[in-house]
Amino acid sequence: MPKKSYPILIFFIIVALVIAGIIIYHRSKLENDFTQIELVMSLNELRELGYQEGYDEIELLAKIKDAGINSLAIHEDTLESLALSGKILYFSDKELNKLNFFLKSIDSFKKYQPTSGEVYIVFKDKDDYLRIKENLQRQLGEDFVRDLNFLPYAGLKVKGSEEKLADLGLGFSKEDIELVRNLGYQIILRPKNLLKTNNEYIDFKFKEIDKAGDISGIIFEGEAVLGYPSKENLIYTAELLKKKEYPFGIIEFADQKGIEVIAQSASELAIRVHSITEEEMEIIPKQKAIDRWIRAAKERNVRIFYIKPFMKKTISGLIEENLSYIKTIRKDLDRAGFTTGKASLLPVSFQKPKIFTLLLILGVISGGIILLKDVFNLKKYQEYSFIFLGILFSFLLLFFNREIFLVKIMALLTALIFPTLAIISNEKYFLGNIIGSDNSKNIDKISNKNYFNFILMIKEVLTGFFRIILVTLSGALLIAALLSDSKFMLGIEQFSGIKISYLVPLLLVLAIMWLKVNKGKLMILENIKKPLLIEHVIIMTFFAIFLVIYISRSGNFSFLPVLSIEEKIRIFLEKTLIARPRNKEFLIGYPALFLAMSMNFLKVKEFKIPMILIGTVGPVTLINTFCHIHTPFLFSMLRTFNGVWLGVVLGLIAVTVFYYLVKIFREKTDYEKI
Asked: What distance in Å separates the CA atoms of residue 310 and residue 272, rounded to the nearest whole number?
């Protein structure tokens, strides 16, 4: 078969890689400056901690600040929080009736009869009365909120059950804001949403926020953000955030309803927030929690730590336990190269020119055509047709302002094409005579104790391996450049098709290798007619189990738990290497590639195709590392480097053992290699 050449396609890929290098250079510079973490705790939760331990509030807040907390989150008042702080008394109509025998002895109550379905609120301070009254009227309507004029104190009667009123946000306490600010903290406000909201109510909420003065940012409270469920209202909230330049938090894994709409419209003000839930805080070991915080900063561009206190009694005491916890988090952040203070914002100006996007896409298309040419005999006009159609498709999506959709498609195609191309373009290391017909005449039989044979095998295996890594890394750089946009870096937009990108390259490699082994023929009927042997059943069972585990453990979530020993290996590698490589990359994929290539060298046919498929996991996992665009690029590169060198070490050990096992077996069976 004549050797195929594609200099123009390779030229396009080189141009795309140069463009990718320029984009990634600017992205890395930006990421190096994006290193300030804001450590936040809730004022309400600290108060609860103080109450539980019998600790003075001011003294506790001062110690927490000295330990490293930068900001305190202030929640909206509720009826319960106001009652606990002693600012109000409130009763349902049923509670009021229970006290009837006592209240009737008070002149003001002699003629008053409670109405079913009402709540009664008595205020200590007039300012609180005015604020709560306005908030309740805005949310419930003026007809549902009336004054209790017969009392010597300011009071309200509100139509509605206690359950309905309990979750209503009633504005922010002026006293709490002044307290926090006077202690030197930055302020983060946590406004609540009202399901039946409108632009007028959103304006009112922002006026409440404005009264707090200079704030560090906003983290919406509850299951939905301000403005949900109306998309128009959510966009209006985003417009006000931009107008007032209030940063806002996106809480990881919380799935707050409506946050994605606000984040799309005001991405320049978005900050990734990580928190450990109260339920988790009950059971998580302190060191594991600390490791989780540092991992969130290093690997996912999290810039606000919303830290909940430990509330479970310890020998050292809760206060000291939490102070130690905060100090260790801050110390480990400093050690990892981060600073603490107001959270860094990612500049929205980080967007690549459209011409750069098109050149990157041209590189992706060229890689796809090379893969097709490796399998089929494409004519020149077919190549040019693919290029023309790809560019036309890209122009149309850019014209209709669908750039995000376009780069998602191209990133997915890159993740499918380049790992497959890495294996198929180096097929001679798996299926061919890699020594070459001229040299093979001068090589001694494998059964002889010839050290040169072993050295040649190692040389050829390493050459093939690094060629595969080079092709895969080219695709990884294209993905990193395609998705280098602030929305992807903040997790507002994400790479689509993780499971597909893990499975399809394996299927493509299997199909293409099958065709090459059978000289372009499917041979399906011929193979079906062959008797089913026990080894075939074993292989199929093994691969079924392998695929289930492989796919289920791909992506962020899996129904299969992480084994204890695996968790320990992960922690050890993370602490030792900074950027922990993927287990399935260096423990499974790369050693399997080494074995598959050594099997070709040693002319071992059994299980070679299955070993190639397992080896494909290595390049697939490598390229997937760069699909997680919220991970800083240099961190991904370090993770890849660690995976490669560990994979090489394990791979060389594996092929050395395999070589001598084959040698011993053949010598014992008087095997002669022809």
From this structure: 23
CA-based torsion, 161, 162, 163, 168: positive or negative: positive
∠ at Cα 357 (351, 362), nearest 5°?
165
Tokens of 68: 């490293």
* Residue linked to tokens 């307290």: 179
Helices 7-33, 354-375: inter-axial angle, 10-degree rounding: 140
d(CA 612, CA 420): 11
What is the rounded distance in angstroms from the CA atom of residue 70 to the CA atom of residue 186?
A: 6
Is 60 exceeded by the pLDDT of residue 525? Answer: no
Tokens 């040693």 appear where? 602
Using a pLDDT cut of 90, give the percent of the chain over it.
61
Q: Which two tokens stand for residue 194?
A: 């009202």
Phi first, then psi: what are they for 271, rounded to 5°?
-135, 130
Asked if pLDDT for residue 450 goes beyond 70, the answer is no
DSSP one-letter string for 600-657: HHTT--TTHHHHHHHHHHHHHHHHHHTT-TTS-HHHHHHHHHHHHHHHHHHHHHHHHH
Q: Which two tokens stand for residue 233?
A: 């209202």
CB 656 within 8 A of CB 512: no
Angle at 221 between CA 216 and CA 224, to 5 degrees: 125
Using alpha carbons, select from 576, 573, 584, 577 the residue that is nearest to residue 635. Answer: 577
CA angle 409, 509, 428 (to 5 degrees): 125
User: Which pLDDT tens digit goes with each residue over 396-421?
Assistant: 999 888 999 999 999 999 999 999 99
Residue with tokens 């009392």: 151
Q: What is the pLDDT of residue 532?
A: 56
The DSSP letter of residue 91 is: E
Residues 6+ away with beta carbon under 8 Å from 566 = 583
Please state, in angstroms and rounded to a whole number, the distance separating the CA atoms of residues 105 and 110: 7
For residue 408, the one-letter residue type is K
User: What is the strand order of the sheet 88-92 is part of?
Assistant: 88-92, 118-123, 155-159, 145-147
Closest-CA residue to 503 (of 457, 553, 461, 454): 553
Give residue-wise pLDDT tens across range 11-66: 999 999 999 999 999 999 999 889 999 999 999 999 999 999 989 999 999 999 99
Identity of the amino acid at 637: M
- Going along 247-399, which residue ranges are E strands? 248-251, 270-275, 304-306, 339-340
Cβ count within 10 A of residue 448: 11
Q: Give tens-digit pLDDT for 573-600.
A: 888 898 999 888 999 999 999 999 999 9
pLDDT in tens, 592-644: 999 999 999 888 887 888 899 999 999 999 999 999 999 999 999 999 999 99
